[in-house]
Structure formats: structure tokens, C-alpha cells
Amino acid sequence: MTRRRRIYEGKAKVLFEGPEPGTLVQYFKDDASAFNNQKKGVITGKGVLNNRISEYLMSRLSEIGVPTHFVRRLNMREQLVREVEIIPIELVVRNVAAGSLSQRFGIPEGTPLPRSIIEYYYKSDELHDPMVSEEHITAFGWAAPQDLDDMVALSLRVNDYLSGLFLGIGLKLVDFKLEFGRLWENEEMRIVLADEISPDNCRLWDVKTNEKLDKDRFRQDLGRVEEAYQEVARRLGILPEGGPSDVKGPKTIQ
Fold first, then answer.
1. In terms of Cα–Cα distance, which of 180, 204, 203, 39 is closest to 121?
2. Domains, the chain, with CATH or none
3. Of the chain's two ends, which shows fewer C-beta atoms within 10 Å, N or C?
4. Distance of CA 51 to the CA centre of its chain
């Protein structure tokens, strides 16, 4: 890892120069942060689990035609991804009231929303990722109207697919965050799903008990954080105990 050129280091991942042009190596850390980096900690084994979970979900999404930056998993903590120009907007898809939405509007946590709601946040640690509107995004040139249309359409498709997938293993997809990038191939540009999909950026609750199986356990000092991530991987059938061939797919919960 030390011999490769480091391109970028975030709160949960490190990007290194890839083995061939147009690729990067994405390394998953065990570091955890919350509340705009005010709370920091380590979740032992989180990087290994998130690498496997994100690999599985990105692969499934690719199979239904959602374009992603994911190429393949390299080892327990690293995956090969295509180099993209990250769009500085996070899209949050909400199905159930939780987190900041509950706080902002006084809606009790756990209240089903009338329909899925998409919110936009400007990616800036210094500004604490402020919520923005379509007008801000297009006026300031962060994304063109067509880019934004593509991002919204892909987000809704991801939401439909993942909601069903998680429901099949007894999990409720409460909300989740997505990031997108511009992938350039010759003179052609297309919007693709980037970053990761894992319990770090999804709220996942047990369907029967509403037990939280995501990073809220770290945010809210609920304990058993590692076990929650392991449980998500176990239900998906991808606990990293064997090699790459041990991915058997999700186990349906009756």
C-alpha cells in the first residue's frame, strides 16, 4: 500500500492510483465518524465488511443496468474502480422518517413517508454538507439539468431495487446516500454510481423489531456496532470467512 501513489483520503476510504490508466484502488478503513466529523472512532472490521457489502450491492445493481464505477474486488479491503469526476452533490433518498428529517420537521422517527423523497446536499466538509436545491446545483454549475435528471432517475431505480432486496432478508431500507461521477470514455460522458453502498451510508432496520443495523449504532452509542454490520453481511450471505467464491446471495427471511 505504501508503494502506490495516494490520490485522496476521506473519512472512511483511501483512493490510490490504479494498476492501469483510468482506474483507482479504493481502500476501506475501519475509521468511523459522525456529526460532521465531530465524533470519531474505530469500528473493528468495518472496512472488510463494507468492501464485501458494497461489492455485492454494486454488482447486483450492474446486473439490472445501473452503471457504476465498480470493477471488481481485489482483496479483503480493496476494490478496483473506474476513475470518475465526482459530482459534488450527495443525493439522500428517504423512505421512512429518521435522522435530520425527523428533527427538521418534527416527524416521529419511523413514520413512513407518503412517497420516497430525494434531498440534495453539497459535498463540503468545511461547510458541513449543507442542504441545497436544484436551483443552487444548476446555477452554480455543480451539475447540469440533464445530469441531475439522470442522477434522480438512477437514485429512484436503486431505491426500488434495494428496497426489495433488503425486504427479502428482513431489513427495511429507511434512507440512504448516493454519490455519482462523470465517466469519460473517449468523447462520451455518462453519469455512473460511485462511492459505496453499505451500512455506513444506509439506514437499515430489522423489519420485525426496528432494531438499527447501521452506523446509527455508532452515532447514538447503542453498542454492538460491529455485530450490526456483521448481521447485514450475514443476511446477504457474504460474511468474509472464505474466499471470493463464497458469495452465495441473500438468505430470505420468512
1. 180
2. 6-83+240-246 (3.30.200.20), 85-224 (3.30.470.20)
3. C
4. 11
